[in-house]
Amino acid sequence: MTKQQLSVEWARGEAHRLVEPLGRRWRHVQAVARCAAQVAAATGLDRTLLVSAAWLHDIGYSPDLDETGFHPVDGGRHLRRLGVDERAVNLVAHHSCARFEAALRGMEPGFSAEFPSPPAEYADALCFSDMTNGPGGDRVDAQSRLDEIRARYGPGHFVTRFVDAAEGEILTSVQRVSVRLSGSQASAQ
Predict the structure, then answer these.
(1) With helix as H, strand as E and coil as C, how does the chain read?
(2) Are 76 and 90 in contact (CB under 8 A)?
(3) Which residues contact 18 (CB under 8 A, 6 or more apart)?
(4) 151: burial class by Cβ within 10 Å (0-12, 13-18, 19+)?
(5) Above 90 in pLDDT, residue 183?
(6) What is the pLDDT of residue 142?
(7) Phi, psi of 23 (to 5 degrees)
(8) Which CATH architecture has domain 8-181?
(9) Using N-to-C axis directions, what is the helix angle for 158-188 and 24-43, rounded to 10°?
């Protein structure tokens, strides 16, 4: 199998191909990638890995990739078929605490076996980038983002149940990155 070399440029192009036709979600993905670039610069995380994963995190919403109806898995499997760096595959599959939704969907323990957990600092950084940018690309606080997701999907939906289950971990993850960003700004002064 030919391996797809991970680069921000390739990831942006693949996301454009798969997500741009989805309209508003494309604006969200662009904002998440911009945010991830800022987080990587401020924290010293590998820019190529984090920003590429940010571009790719929602590709599983593309109808071209829909196999399971669970976009983190569909996106992760697509990237794996292309031979993309497993670190990026696992970040996409696990983005924003997706393992909680995998459990609700009855996909555990298979999900965690198929997609090992990424390093916490990268998972946190991608979660921060995703959860502080709304569906139209606007900057929001994480609690408002979670509330918007609940309102969009409605009571009883898998995604709403996921948000209810994962809220504490998502907010803690966002807080950890906020602290790191505050520390990097203070040391730069």
Answers:
(1) CCCCCCCHHHHHHHHHHHHHHHCHHHHHHHHHHHHHHHHHHHHCCCHHHHHHHHHHCCHHHCCCCCCCCCHHHHHHHHHHHHCCCHHHHHHHHHCCCHHHHHHHCCCCCHHHHHCCCCCHHHHHHHHHHHHCECCCCCECCHHHHHHHHHHHHCCCCHHHHHHHHHHHHHHHHHHHHHHHHHHHHHHHC
(2) yes
(3) 59, 62, 64, 65
(4) exposed
(5) no
(6) 98
(7) 80, -120
(8) Orthogonal Bundle (1.10)
(9) 40
The count of other CB atoms within 10 Å of the CB of residue 15 is 25
CB 56 within 8 A of CB 15: yes
Neighbours of 165 (CB within 10 A): 16
Token pair 């090992």 in the structure block, residue: 116
Residue 88: name the closest of 143, 152, 18, 15 by CA: 15
Of all residues in the chain, what percent carry a pLDDT higher than 70?
97
Domain ranges of the chain: 8-181
Tokens encoding 6: 């991970």
Does this model's pTM top 0.85? My answer is yes
Give the pLDDT score at 179: 97
Q: Which residue has the tokens 């198929």?
A: 114
